[in-house]
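Divalent metal cation transporter MntH, Periweissella beninensis. Tokens?
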Amino acid sequence: MEASKSQGLFKTANGASLEEINSSVKVPKDASFWKKLFAFSGPGALVAVGYMDPGNWVTSIVGGAKYGYLLVSVILLSSLIAMLLQYMAAKLGIVTQLDLAQATRSHVNKPVGIILWILTELAIMATDIAEVIGGAIAMNLLFNIPLVIGVSLTVLDVLLLLLLTKLGFRKIEAIVVTLIAVILLVFAYEVFLAKPDLGATATNLIPHTKIITDGGALTLALGIIGATVMPHNLYLHSSISQTRKINHDDPAEIKEAVRFSAWDSNIQLTGAFIINVLLLLVGAAMFFGHGDGLDTFRALYNALQDNKLAGAIASPILSMLFAIALLASGQNSTITGTLTGQVIMEGFIHLKMPLWARRLITRLLSIIPVLIATIMYGGKEGALDNLLINSQVFLSIALPFSMIPLVWFTSSKKIMGEYVNSKWITALGWLAVLILTGLDLYGLPGLISGWFN
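Tokens:
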């Protein structure tokens, strides 16, 4: 019961996180392991989409095109760190019944809370920029829809999300899982046709010194790791882990919820790891040795139907499947980005407004800079792709402000009671913070330089 007592430390927060869906999913009491796992499965999928969003696509494929299978170990390391931090985020929400924004706000004064909200909102905008751009470019490639119109159409995602929320949170989870399956099947098919070297793939699961000694490989490795764990995912998971209805007066139910949430998260993040590896394998098997210039979505789309680049398997069908997967990825991430915007707005500044207005404002904040860039540079090849890459500067700045409180809260006996992190989990958590923060700070000067160029 220590955790129940510790929850009193946080009760300055303003209501339940995502109140309209909090504790909305019933969990069977006396059921088999698999039935309970199914009941708890879903939040992990919404989190996993952040690890396979359009912002990671170019980096993974270009990594394969330029360095073959060398960077597979970097994707593995990123995924393991993600599993650790997302486990902490889910546990924080389940045990304290508060999301990371609410917990952080309860430990700072109002001015600091506002500053943190603005910083986190900018990080969400930076993340959402990738999803908006990915969706708009996919619509342009598939249906020849002008980029300005495609960017504007992404507002409709909010209406879709509102509809799904009315039908129940499980509907949101179902559509996200379906879109993830589309992405997985598309790239599994393309990798099957490409016939990558599976032996080299397995060998490169162990890091090679070339990743450090080769400047280009190191830069791509920094991009893969530094942009993988995004601030918004930690806030989102700490909130949606509370969608399952459990008795918080029963320690056994809390422990069970934490355990099954960890299963859900790790399974879904394993899927994200597989998809990211598939992306790299597409680049390695099809374009290694002649992948220069494949640094935009359109260039990749064109390359998949170019016999000189993709070889005998090149075809318009492969390009179309790539664009469909890109559209699915953008749709997935816009849903989760909108939910996260609501979480931080309520958690940090306790802002109350109608549900549709909160979500619409969050979406518009992300669309405005993309629209401006599209109108100003829409005719320039790669302009939106450059905006996508340069937007990562906000993620680099905001990341420590979410990771550090998360590890600190979940490692505090006073806050978590009997559910506190073990010593080795705490040690790994702080090590992950040091690695990710260090890598982001290492790459920050280059990001800022590119942002202003």
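Residues 4 and 249 are 7 Å apart (CA to CA).
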